[in-house]
Amino acid sequence: MRFVASYAFIAWLCASGLATAQVADLRSTTQFRVCADPANAPMSVKDGTGFENELADLFGQLLDRPVTYSWFPSGMGFITRTLRAGTCDVVMGYAQGDELVQNTNHYYTSVYGIVTRKDGDLASVDHLTDPALKDHPIGVVAGTPPATIMARAGLAKDMHGADLMVDRRVEDPVGDLLEDVRNGTLDAAVLWGPMAGPRIKDDPEMRFMPLLKETTGPRMFYRITMGVRPGEQEWKRELNSLIRRHQEEINAILKEAGVPLVDDYGKELLP
């Protein structure tokens, strides 16, 4: 029995070593291979105009490797069909803490906010429990953290939900909500900053108010990382080093795009 147990243990060790080698072999050393949604504007777009595309270009330059993409719609199966399948080596713009990937250090923190018309009745609202929100039609993406707070605040009857899990090649729920705010169908929309901020940064009639004062319910700010395969420690450390040494360049791209950046605790907007 001891021999059988020892043999099993040795076999397990060998298998573990093989698995580690196979993981390491998946990463390209000649290209910066990015897993991305082809229609997730303003973040990633197949024509290269998204701000995550710009960040990928920056990292490609720093690594002296051409940037290539494995395109697949975000949602169910995205990680399995891209990163885990070995067709690409990094997912840009991945929220910290997801167990499907190994997270790098975060390279920015952003926040949910309220989008209104600047001349609208709700332009000064900066928290979701403000009584002023009641009896006003408000857009929100179903299943997102602010939807929970709004429901608890008694705003369920005023909420106009948009679907979260959609194929953005054919649907644009955030764009639809923003257009409804512009044309007056909605008085406000509560949206994730990186999705809303860049879309309205040049619109003189719209504003984004970050939700920095929420004290109950799900948090409104999230740290954003890159995702790599579990076990690829060397690759993660290499990316972490680049993030640390080039944070100012990263911030410049994000600010130019119109992404609202906050401190790591979601308390203050960065200048």
Q: If you compute it from the alpha carbons, what radius of gyration comes out, rounded to the nearest whole angstrom?
A: 21 Å
Mean model confidence by pLDDT: 90
Largest sheet: 10 strands, mixed
Helix content: 25-40%
Q: How many β-strand stretches?
A: 12
- Report the uncertain regions: 1-22
CATH topology of the largest domain: D-Maltodextrin-Binding Protein, domain 2
- Label the overall shape: elongated
Q: Alpha-carbon distance between the termini?
A: 67 Å
Give the tally of structural domains.
Answer: 2
Helix count, per DSSP? 8
- The secondary-structure element order is HEEEHEHEEEEHEHEHEEHH
Query: In the CATH hierarchy, what is the superfamily of the largest domain?
Result: Periplasmic binding protein-like II
Percent in strands: 15-25%
Class by helix and strand content? alpha/beta
Offer a concise description of the structure.
The chain is of the alpha/beta class. Helix content is 34%, strand content 21%.
Reconstruct the topology from this structure.
Elements: H1 2-26, E1 32-36, E2 39-40, E3 44-45, H2 51-63, E4 67-71, H3 78-81, E5 90-95, E6 102-103, E7 108-117, E8 138-141, H4 145-152, E9 159-162, H5 173-182, E10 188-192, H6 193-200, E11 206-210, E12 221-228, H7 233-245, H8 247-257
Parallel strand pairs: 1-4, 1-5, 8-9, 8-10
Antiparallel strand pairs: 2-3, 5-12, 6-12, 7-10, 7-11, 7-12
Helix pairs in contact: 2-8
